[in-house]
Amino acid sequence: MNKLHKGWFTEFSPDDLEKMNGASDEEPTKVLKSDGQEMGGAWPGQAFSLQVKKVLFHEKSKYQDVLVFESTTYGNVLVLDGIVQATERDEFSYQEMLAHLPMFAHPDPKRVLIIGGGDGGILREVLKHESVEKVTMCEIDEMVIDVAKKFLPGMSCGFSHPKLDLFCGDGFEFLKNHKNEFDVIITDSSDPVGPAESLFGQSYYELLRDALKEDGILSSQGESVWLHLPLIAHLVAFNRKIFPAVTYAQSIVSTYPSGSMGYLICAKNANRDVTTPARTLTAEQIKALNLRFYNSEVHKAAFVLPQFVKNALE
Amino acid sequence: MNKLHKGWFTEFSPDDLEKMNGASDEEPTKVLKSDGQEMGGAWPGQAFSLQVKKVLFHEKSKYQDVLVFESTTYGNVLVLDGIVQATERDEFSYQEMLAHLPMFAHPDPKRVLIIGGGDGGILREVLKHESVEKVTMCEIDEMVIDVAKKFLPGMSCGFSHPKLDLFCGDGFEFLKNHKNEFDVIITDSSDPVGPAESLFGQSYYELLRDALKEDGILSSQGESVWLHLPLIAHLVAFNRKIFPAVTYAQSIVSTYPSGSMGYLICAKNANRDVTTPARTLTAEQIKALNLRFYNSEVHKAAFVLPQFVKNALE
Predict the structure, then answer these.
(1) Bias regions of kind Basic and acidic residues — which residues (chains A, B) (predicted)?
(2) Identified catalytic residue from B119, B141, B188, B191
């Protein structure tokens, strides 16, 4: 079975795909990891497909397989290592939540660091905040930025912005040289399979804490409550040793596996309640900022977790 | 292309499936409908697959194609006319929200009517409320009840309960003979393609209003904000002429198309605020009732809608 087959792209779980491509049914090796611990298969036994109108780009970068196709009903779609990262139709929900939960939880974010986020969607949202003086972005894979500029213009519109400092390199290494510098840090990574694996371990989060200012807030892609609860519980548990305030939010993103996405939001200041916006928005402001998913009520509601998630994280 | 193929079941949009099975690329006829109006294809250009361990049952009833299979990672799965209705792994999220939003919004629900719900999941949740004196259930397709009893024991456990009055027949016809009788009515229907089409029109909702007592509350399966926003806006708009209080809630359900599900909640009493539970639950009560998704905070948060949905429904 192929990922591209008879006019459809199918996103299988990495472990299922390995079984299909390999000769044996042995234990899969491509599983989600954190701190070297295996957190189970990614989403075995299920798959999501999008109908392909035209393949626009398909190459292997130094780090991963990069595919962009035009779909019949979701606009252009960015796929890394067989996993959908963004579609033009629903990307706003993920970008707005991952970016604005920490940004609006902060009273006055001036210096922002984005790790990953090569498609530019998080950058676009961060630049909506007038308080921002400089956005630093550290993306490991330049090819992702290049294809976003070419095929995802609505997402990559911020790459020419004068407030942007762009570095192509490893986020983990970058952080070692930056201490007490940022008001908000956003980790917009792919899953912990491949180049992003180091972004799901305790030592990475210790570097993030040190790179934040005293009132700094962190936001990280936090996987799906339906699929990755052990991994999420592990992330929350070790971060409670690193940050005085650790919270988890979730919202709907149609084309991610299981249709939901979580956000790990941590604050360095114990008195900062990130579940309530420090700055609320009027209807006029929402319109002016072209917010399609986020509003001040959505901010608070995102931290209300289904009972089974609450149980797992307590 | 088949729905069952090489060990996987794939849920295509009904219109895509018709195209694949037919010889032509003509306009599909299987689209979501309300009041005879076509509301667009169901979810063209996307598909969701589950890996099949074993097909347990596959027959055509008088009304629809009924399939039950054991999946590799989602337990047993009920499929009607090619659409996943419930999997043992995530069914609780849908059942608890569709049932408990109206049930806990009501201060003292004694008489409850379920229309559809042949798998028994809604019945199981309704029976958790001690105030309930009688549950009437009207399911059109007896075969659904029979396969649920056999293959979905965790969902169908309420069918032998002494408080249950079970009718096998058409919900629309049933309502014509019941006026001012129920505290809560729950419509647990499949999509408006096939036997459930009549349950998405204005005349159905007028019958529901008349069957409710003066302080009665209605809950209906309300489709997905990602896929069916025109249909949802239409349902909300015509119900505003029928009920003094019309609200919409949504939550995550992993195996429904796009991973989200909406709930249309209407009250006959203008002063009833259904977005706030009339009865709140303690942690002990949540445990005793075996609630895995619903709690009193989840109730309120479900009515907070993403901005694009808010815009569409205002």
Answers:
(1) 27-36
(2) B188
Amino acid code (one letter) for A94: Y
Instruction: Considering the domain delimited by B4-87, tell me its CATH architecture.
Output: Roll (2.30)
Complex ipTM value: 0.96
Residue extents of the structural domains in chain A: 4-87, 90-313
Distance CA B215, CA B234 (A): 24
- Residues paired with B59 in a beta bridge: B66
Q: Would you say A121 and A87 are in contact if contact means Cβ atoms under 8 Å apart?
A: no
Q: pTM score > 0.90 for this model? A: yes
**Which residue in chain B has the smallest CA separation from A52?**
B45
B70 vs B72: CA distance, rounded Å: 7
CA distance A272 to chain B (A): 21
> Cα(A308)–Cα(A306) distance, rounded to whole angstroms?
6
A188 included as an active-site residue: yes
CATH architecture of the domain A90-313 equals 3-Layer(aba) Sandwich (3.40)
Q: Which residues of A touch B254 (CB under 8 A)?
A: 226-227, 258-260
Q: What is the pLDDT of residue A160?
A: 97
Per the DSSP assignment, residues forming a β-bridge with A76 are: A70
Q: Note the maximum CA span of chain B.
A: 58
Q: Per-residue pLDDT tens for B74-127?
A: 999 999 999 999 999 999 999 999 999 999 999 999 999 999 999 999 999 999
User: Is any Cβ of chain A less than 8 angstroms from the Cβ of B71?
Assistant: yes
What does the pLDDT average to over B138-162? 98
What's the pLDDT band for A31 if we cut at 50, 70, 90?
confident
